[in-house]
Structures are given as structure tokens and as C-alpha cells.
Amino acid sequence: MPAGRHEISASLDGKPWKGFVESGPEDAERLDRQLQERLSASDAGRSSRPFVDFNHEGKEAAAIPLKFVWREGIKLLVRWTQAGLDALRGSVYSYFSPTFELKDGRPEAIANVGPIGGLTNAPAFQSIRRLAATHQQEQSMTTLIKSLVSLGLVADGVEDEVKVSAAVQASVNRMQAELNAAKDRAAAAAANEGKLQAELVEFRRQRDEGFESEIEGHVKAGLIPPESRAFFVEAIKRDEQGARALIASLKPAGRGTAPVRASFQAVSSDKSAAQRIQAQIDAEPDASKRQYLRVQNWSVLAGEVQPA
After folding, report:
1. Residue from 59, 65, 52 nearest 115 by CA
2. Which domain holds residue 12?
3. Which of 67, 231, 236, 306 is the most buried (most CB within 10 A)?
4. How many angstroms separate the CA atoms of 46 and 44, rounded?
5. Torsions phi, psi of 262, nearest 5?
């Protein structure tokens, strides 16, 4: 039964009748309540089963009605009998014609006993679709619902199109909320990472200032020559424990440590700077002085710069 107001030519109390019929979602709900009552009574053995017949003859069943729904009009979900499928596939009948009681131009009730409609080729509503196309649409809808159920977007057992649409929308809203929450967590994590990074930079800055102040104290105390200040600052930044061990092994200037650069003069001048320095270190019998020479001339031994 199509949505809206339509003029139909039908039979009323066994006589030809022509008039207007209007339908809406509330009519589909009312007719379905009545259908469910009839089906329950049939299952309990209190009345005969409702059915869809052929050409309103009230004999063979073409289909068993299951539910009235609103899908841009009142639609009836059915389970086809073999005879009904054969008639549909063979184009023996092409349309469904409902049987209902009218009240003020609206479908008020289905029949209490017998068929609630029939397959026909001359439906009262001329604007309804052929059943072959409707059947294909229902099959597609069933397949779609199964897919939505498998994806967890719709609960198993939901068949009404309006409820399916609402369930899908609810699932989409839930996923959107979860996505927004994930974005918020990611933004919070990024902000926290930025804060931690800034704290790390500040920690390193304060630490380096402390190192520089510490080395400057050793220079003023005469433990480290002024020209080795930069080396020790870099050394303590790279290896705090190792640099402090080296500093602890040094002797203050004027306490047995000879000037380092003057001692290089005795080394053969035909060798490279690094070789000359290493030869001088190897020739030095005092272990503390050898260590001091390595520290003071570390950059030369590493091949980074040449001695002044």
C-alpha cells in the first residue's frame, strides 16, 4: 500500500467501490499489532492461520504473512509457499492486493479470519510496484541486514527498516564518539610529550651549566689547564663518570707535572702530529702524566685538529 492519499477502485461489502485511501506509519503499526495477535492465536491453536491467497479466492496459500512494516508505504513481510514462488517466478501473478477494513479513508483493520490479501493482476492501488521487483528488493534488504549483523552494526533479529536504520545510526554515533575520544587521548599524549620534551631540554641546560661551572672550578684550582677547559666540558657532558675519574687522577699544576707542549720538541719532526704525541705518551714513565697527556691531547689523537 503506497504512502500518501490514493484513489482506488475496489470491492466494498461485495460491491464495486471507488474512493480515496490514505496511509501512514501509524497505520502500519496498528495493522501489525493485529497481525501479531492473529499469528499468536494461530500458534496457540485458538484460530486458523492468516495467509495470502490467490486472486482473493480464499483457497490456496501463496504466502504466510509475518509482519507489516512502513517503508515509504505499508509493506507486508511474508514467507512464500512453493505455490506462491512458482506463481511469482512464472509471472502468473504480479501484484499483491490487501484486504482490510476502512474507517474515515484509512486502513483500520485486517480480517479476523481467512486471508489478509491476495496475489492478483488487477490491484486496487495502481501505483504499487510489481512483486518481482519488490521480492528482489526484499532479498537485497535481507542480505544487507545480514551483512550489518556480521559487522556488529545491527543486533541479530532486527528486520524493520526503520529500526535497522536507527541501529546503524547508533553504531555510527558510537564509533564516532570512540574516534573522538581516541583523538582526544592522542592530543593529550602529544601535549604531554611536548611538556616532557621541554622539561628535558631545561634539565639538560641546567646540567650543562653545572658541568661548565664544575670544570671552571677545577681550572681555577689549577687542576685543569685553561686550554683544556673546552675538552673537559665536552668530556663530562658525554661521560660524566669517566670524566670525573680522569679529573680525580690529575695533579695540580706545579706539583710535578711538566709543561706538556714543550716536551713534544724532542719527538722526531718527520712523524704526524698524532704519532708524535702518542710516542711522547708511550715514552712517559709516569702513569698520571701519561693519562694527563691523553686527556689534554685527546682531539689530536682522535684526528680532529692539529696541535698549536
Report:
1. 52
2. 4-128
3. 236
4. 6
5. -65, -30
CB 4 within 8 A of CB 22: yes
Same domain, yes or no: 105 and 13? yes
Q: How far, in Å, CA of 120 to CA of 97, rounded?
A: 6
Torsion sign (Cα): 207, 209, 214, 215: positive
pLDDT tens digits along 145-201: 676 777 776 676 665 556 666 777 777 788 888 888 998 899 888 888 888 889 889
End-of-domain residue from the set 106, 128, 150: 128
- Phi, psi dihedral angles at 172 (to 5 degrees): -65, -40
pLDDT at residue 63, as a whole number: 92
Q: Do 30 and 116 have their domain in common? A: yes
Q: What share of the chain is helix, strand, coil (3-state, %, to 5)?
A: 55, 20, 30
Q: Helices 240-249 & 287-296, crossing angle to 10 degrees?
A: 130
Residue 181 lies inside a defined structural domain of this protein = no
Considering only CA atoms, which of 173, 145, 140, 143 is closest in space to residue 157?
145
**Within a domain: 70:** yes
